[in-house]
Amino acid sequence: MFELNGKIAVVTGASSGLGRDAALAYANEGANVCVLARRVEKIESLAKEIKNLGVESIAIKCDVTKEEEIKTAVEAIINRFGRIDILLNNAGIAVRGGVDTLSEEDWDKSMDTNVKGIYLVSKYVIPIMKNQNYGKVVNISSINALLADKSDIFIRHSYNASKAAVLGLSKGMAASYAKFGITVNSICPGLFESEMTEDTLFKSQEFLKSYNMLCPASRPAKKGELNGTILYFSSDASSYVTGQHIVVDGGLSIV
Questions:
Q1: What is the domain count for the chain?
Q2: Would 231 be classed as within a structural domain?
Q3: Is 211 a catalytic residue?
Q4: 19-65 tens-digit pLDDT
């Protein structure tokens, strides 16, 4: 049920971290993977790695805040593969600051990447999935859509707001497109090591000690521990699941 043999998967924000891991997980399950990001060298290297696993892959430069780049990317994917079965909306950023300190530019940057980016990519992929009468959309939200923290490290009000919006958008999409054989679900990761977190959270021993004490798992997530949930929502194992979110946080949100 979790096999993806012959499926065409699209991953945004694939140049590093959770997106890169997910692209490789898709390939290991037999999917052909289209990797999209702004950093061309990184995704071209990833595409070569994916091809070495025995499937096809293309790397396409794409900024999810720019509609023309998205349109061009989707056209290139259709010209190459003829369909899109899976869309992982993973591209995201985290800008630090509260509403009393954030600039309007930083607020807009968060909203444009984390929310508008999902809207724009989906705008061009959903019609393809509707024509196929099949599609799996997985939107990456965050535990910070559900929880706030008073720690100075975690004051990221635009991140809280944008990731909460992802949950609402996912539910709306799920309700509208289920009749076309499309499921739309979201994932709320807890603390994973990535470019977004390594320069702040993982460099603070005080923060990590506090996190480990609060989290029932007593540790941050390990590399690859989000892949199982991504594969579940991306495969026919979740054929009757839509409009839902799964929190992958080692139990932090239950205490």
A1: 1
A2: yes
A3: no
A4: 999 999 999 999 999 999 999 999 999 999 999 999 999 999 999 99
